[in-house]
Specification:
Blueprint lengths: L8 H20 L4 H23 L4 E3 L4 E3 L1 H24 L4 H5 L1 H19 L4 H19 L6 H32 L4 H11 L6 H18 L7 H8 L2 H8 L1 H17 L7 H22 L5 H22 L2 H32 L10 H4 L1 H15 L5 H15 L3 H27 L15 H19 L1 H11 L4
Antiparallel strand pairs: 1-2
Helix pairs in contact: 1-2, 1-5, 2-3, 2-5, 3-5, 3-12, 3-15, 3-21, 5-6, 5-12, 6-7, 6-12, 7-9, 7-10, 8-12, 9-12, 9-13, 10-11, 10-14, 11-15, 13-14, 13-19, 14-15, 14-18, 14-19, 15-17, 15-18, 15-20, 15-21, 17-19, 17-20, 18-19, 18-20, 20-21
């Protein structure tokens, strides 16, 4: 067994930081609470530095090739760490008003850092076993975090539903992996690809076909695509908003990283299999239609964003249906845009919830006049989610749709464009409330409290959303370099 500990230093740093935070919280108690977020942030920054120092320009295989360091894994490791750092900053102000999270602060950050570690491991997974373990390392902490507000019935219900359906999806995924192993005799992704090609199994072996379909169903649940989206609306709405933010960003990165590894390395010739492409197209089509149309009547912001995430998963699946290198870097670009605008939208929503004690869209009423800066930033995030220029969402959809048109999926792109037009209504509805609906609550809550750290993060995210269109070549270069691993 080849063991290269240097290659996993970033993951070791995050794991050590999580354990340190947990142990200090247990043995020192409340006196340590103020230092938990800064220590977590310092550990994340150290891990980012470790990626650049030890791994960024190297290609390495470790632990019997189950852990792979390449351009793809380095891109996703940095992406995950930066997203977790932003999340840590946002959580610092949110948890001040959450009694239960404050009471168990060390455990909260330990679970968050565990999700971060799992996501990083997912992006570097070289075999089916590592893929599954990494996915569960992300899933199990999010089940716990979804029910973190024990006194809140909605939170308990969300956690229970998320847990039951999540375990079911994991079981289906594990069974799918076992059937792939049974058909090929291999767990290493590259070896699986070699066996499938040499024996021409992709369209002939029934066990392999069923195994791949079951695996795609499991991944479909994890990325939140229709028709495996049942958990998302209730979980997003019932979980604490900061946890919803984690599920829709960092956990989403993990799911897509795993799906990319599985399809592009393990089933590397999947583009030549009509039934795999048709299955992905069905998922994409159902996601963009169900996600966008079900979002229309929603009055709760988090529930709306759940359906929004379903539709965005569908748009990204267009790239998987195309199954070319150009489509894959377009998906990377889209994922970067999606995570940045999602983090920004939830950052603003948490500020509104903190002051007005409501998660409803109606709670945004009048902030265009009381808080003009965060309102302008929210407009940037919402318009970007629609996919209109000159924002990040536009550049993401542009290249995914371009890849679709160039590969004879014009009809699917047309459906995507039409459903994007539908999404304009529910995103603009939030903007309408900010500027054209009068706030009728207590005068003391008319102006939203805006901590400096939150404003700084929202500003960075808004600028990033603009930068993706202003200097797209930088982000395209990063994305294209990442796909050289395949």
């Amino acid at each position: 067994m080849n063991v290269d500990l240097i290659s996993i230093i970033p993951e070791m740093v995050i794991t050590a930081t999580g354990l340190l935070v947990l142990l200090l919280s247990v043995f020192i108690g409340k006196k340590f609470d103020r230092a938990i977020a800064p220590i977590s942030a310092a550990g994340i920054i150290a891990a980012i530095a470790a990626v650049f120092i030890f791994n960024f320009y190297n290609r390495a295989y470790s632990f019997s090739n189950s852990f792979v360091v390449d351009n793809f894994s380095n891109f996703f490791r940095i992406f995950t760490l930066v997203s977790t750092l932003i999340f840590t900053g946002l959580s610092a102000s949110y948890i001040k008003d959450s009694i239960h999270i404050k009471r168990h602060l060390g455990e909260f950050y330990f679970l968050v850092l565990t999700v971060c570690t799992g996501t990083m491991l997912m992006s570097a997974s070289g075999d089916l076993i590592m893929l599954f373990i990494s996915l569960e390392l992300v899933s199990i902490p999010t089940y716990i975090l979804a029910g973190y507000e024990k006194a809140n019935e909605r939170s308990n219900e969300a956690a229970l539903k998320y847990f039951i359906l999540g375990i079911l999806a994991s079981a289906i995924l594990a069974y799918g992996f076992s059937m792939i192993y049974g058909a090929t005799g291999e767990v290493n992704l590259k070896e699986i690809a070699r066996v499938i090609i040499n024996r021409e199994l992709l369209n002939q072996n029934f066990m392999l076909v069923v195994g791949i379909i079951m695996s795609l169903i499991g991944f479909g649940f994890k990325i939140g695509s229709a028709p495996f989206h049942w958990w998302a609306p209730d979980t997003y709405e019932g979980a604490p908003t900061i946890v919803t933010t984690l599920i829709t960003t960092i956990a989403k990165i993990a799911a897509f990283a795993g799906l990319i590894r599985f399809l592009y390395i393990g089933i590397s010739r999947f583009s030549k299999s009509l039934w795999i492409i048709v299955f992905i197209i069905i998922l994409s089509l159902m996601s963009v239609i169900i996600g966008n149309f079900m979002a229309l009547p929603q009055k709760n912001f988090k529930r709306l964003m759940a359906y929004s995430s379903i539709s965005h998963a569908g748009f990204m699946l267009v790239g998987f249906a195309v199954a070319t290198v150009d489509a894959q870097w377009a998906v990377f670009l889209y994922l970067m845009a999606y995570i940045s605008m999602n983090l920004g939208a939830f950052a603003v929503a948490m500020l509104v919830e903190r002051t007005r004690k409501s998660e409803e869209i109606a709670a945004f009423a009048g902030i265009g006049y009381t808080n003009p800066f965060i309102s302008i930033c929210m407009i940037i995030f919402m318009i970007s989610m629609v996919g209109l220029p000159p924002f990040a969402g536009f550049i993401g959809k542009l290249f995914v749709f371009k890849a679709g048109v160039e590969n004879n999926l014009t009809w699917l792109v047309i459906v995507g464009v039409l459903t994007s037009v539908v999404s304009l209504w529910y995103y603009v509805n939030i903007i309408r409330h900010m500027y054209f609906v009068k706030y009728e609550g207590a005068p003391s809550t008319a102006r939203i409290e805006t901590p400096k750290l939150s404003i700084f993060i929202i500003t960075i995210l808004a600028l990033f959303t603009l930068a993706m269109v202003i200097v797209p070549s930088v982000f395209i270069m990063v994305s294209t370099n990442s796909v050289t691993s395949f």
